[in-house]
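Help! Submission page says 'invalid entity' but I think these are all valid:
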Amino acid sequence: DARVTQTPRDKVTEMGQEVTMRCQPILGHNTVFWYRQTMMQGLELLAYFRNRAPLDDSGMPKDRFSAEMPDATLATLKIQPSEPRDSAVYFCASGTGQPPDTQYFGPGTRLTVL
Amino acid sequence: RKEVEQDPGPFNVPEGATVAFNCTYSNSASQSFFWYRQDCRKEPKLLMSVYSSGNEDGRFTAQLNRASQYISLLIRDSKLSDSATYLCVVEGYSTLTFGKGTMLLVSP
């Protein structure tokens, strides 16, 4: 049963620290998405990759967030420096890139910035 | 108008009831539509795609009205295990836009 995996599952850190979240998409999927979910805003798209190339990161605060895909099996999302308002659940999802482009979500990283 | 709008609920229904959720979307160029289900503290999971002709999967029926930009989900014979948040999802420009979800609580 192929699944998207994410690490860490939970992260508590102090304001100003760097946070790195990792995602392994489903093998063979060529689209990868990073989302942030909060009670107030719901699910927000942060960044989107196709074939490892970033296509859309307009939802991401550029001054502190960065997203990369070093290879087809790893996507990373970094926050530096982290702030309390970054506290949220961060989901990675992957898809085939073919319509209808169903996305399969990982279990998420619950981030708390103190 | 918000891109994807849903009544947040919660909808409280007894087991065996029929319940319907609605969703409106603003992007008339959208081509694909979905309902996802999210359990508390879990990731969203695809429940079903929504086709123009309407589609059914067991107790679940999804309908799309392109003219009104409106999507619905009907759940018949509700089970306790149906308690979750249901997310309306609309495809636009190769990405998905999620509604904030409608919470369903099914009680014994």
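Support: the input was valid. A stray whitespace character was the problem, and the output above is from the cleaned input. Chain A has no helices and eleven strands.
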